[in-house]
């Protein structure tokens, strides 16, 4: 095992330094700063508007708030107290967690196993199957809505009564939909990372008598943690901020916070000012997740570039 670690970690600091040197330049830094400023100005405007009275929001621009200091928390209190279809903001937060966590873990487990199979297992039709999975990335998810709705209406998936166990309006159909949509990209990204593990490491483990299970759990999984963490963060943020899938598959008491925000404005959009506060309430969780785990995200992005 010590030889395995030597083969994998040898020269890694030098490779990381080389990768950072290539990705860093004065012009790239300036461009990143300009993009960050342009991207941040609208967000800052929404933040300022969330503390302004309704009449001020509807009649003047957010930049006039510094001349008229009529700050208030009414938008936040009203947004937190909003109940649509008997669902409050607190309940929708619970639903978002109940949807996002399984919808991020399920495709991650399946994709990691599939990535190892495509990278280090030989079976008939492997290349054709991998190209087919890769090609699914270009298929718009809207094309799968009708087949999925027909599948869920029968209350079973591949003969198993999965949907009936959770009810017709349960979480299961949202988990399955998000997992299906995430798998092509997850398999592709994780395969590229897993396939770059030195073949000498895998061959040394096979010579020592390790099977596919031992190789996967003792070698591939530990070495792939940066890539797995990166995709987990990406999938978590994607599912938490999703609205399209929620509008179709998350009905009734399982609606997430994004769906509540869409309905918070009223039938004719007369309460659109509540979105300024509701958006920042909903962004708290993704912001915390990204700030706490950003080092894993950056490490996963650089890890694939530093292999070789």
What do these coordinates show?
- The protein is mainly α and 308 residues long.
- The protein has a single domain, classed as MetI-like (MetI-like fold), CATH 1.10.3720.10.
- The chain has helices at residues 2-9, 12-23, 26-49, 54-59, 74-81, 89-120, 126-135, 145-153, 162-166, 172-194, 199-207, 212-240, 244-249, 257-264, 274-282, 284-306; strands at 83-84, 87-88.
- A two-stranded antiparallel ribbon has the order 1-2.
- The longest helix is centred in the middle third of the chain and has 32 residues, at 89-120.
- It is globular.
- Residues 1-11 and 304-308 have low confidence and may be disordered.
What can be said about this structure in brief?
The chain is mostly helical. It is 72% helix and 1% strand. The protein has helices at 2-9, 12-23, 26-49, 54-59, 74-81, 89-120, 126-135, 145-153, 162-166, 172-194, 199-207, 212-240, 244-249, 257-264, 274-282, 284-306, and strands spanning 83-84, 87-88.
């Amino acid at each position: 095992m010590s030889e395995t670690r030597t083969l994998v970690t040898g020269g890694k600091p030098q490779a990381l330094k080389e990768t950072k040197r290539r990705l860093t330049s004065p012009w790239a830094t300036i461009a990143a700063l300009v993009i960050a400023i342009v991207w941040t100005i609208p967000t800052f405007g929404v933040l300022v508007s969330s503390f302004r009275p309704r009449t001020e929001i509807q009649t003047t621009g957010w930049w006039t708030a510094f001349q008229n200091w009529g700050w208030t928390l009414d938008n936040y209190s009203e947004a937190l107290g909003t109940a649509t279809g008997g669902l409050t903001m607190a309940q929708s937060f619970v639903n978002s967690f109940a949807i996002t966590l399984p919808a991020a873990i399920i495709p991650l487990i399946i994709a990691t196993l599939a990535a190892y199979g495509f990278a280090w297992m030989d079976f008939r039709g492997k290349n054709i199957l991998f190209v087919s999975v890769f090609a699914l990335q270009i298929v718009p998810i809207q094309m799968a809505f009708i087949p999925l709705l027909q599948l869920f209406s029968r209350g079973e998936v591949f003969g198993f009564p999965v949907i009936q166990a959770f009810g017709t309006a349960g979480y299961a159909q949202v988990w399955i939909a998000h997992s299906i949509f995430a798998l092509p990209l997850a398999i592709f990204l994780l395969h590229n990372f897993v396939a770059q593990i030195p073949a000498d490491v895998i061959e040394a483990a096979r010579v020592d008598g390790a099977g596919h299970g031992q190789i996967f759990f003792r070698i591939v999984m530990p070495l792939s943690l940066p890539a797995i963490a990166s995709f987990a963060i990406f999938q978590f943020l994607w599912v938490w901020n999703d609205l399209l899938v929620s509008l179709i598959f998350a009905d009734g008491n399982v609606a997430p916070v994004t769906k509540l925000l869409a309905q918070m404005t009223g039938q004719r959009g007369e309460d659109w000012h509540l979105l300024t506060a509701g958006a920042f309430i909903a962004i708290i969780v993704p912001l915390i997740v990204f700030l706490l785990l950003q080092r894993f995200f950056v490490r996963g992005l650089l890890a694939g570039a530093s292999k070789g």
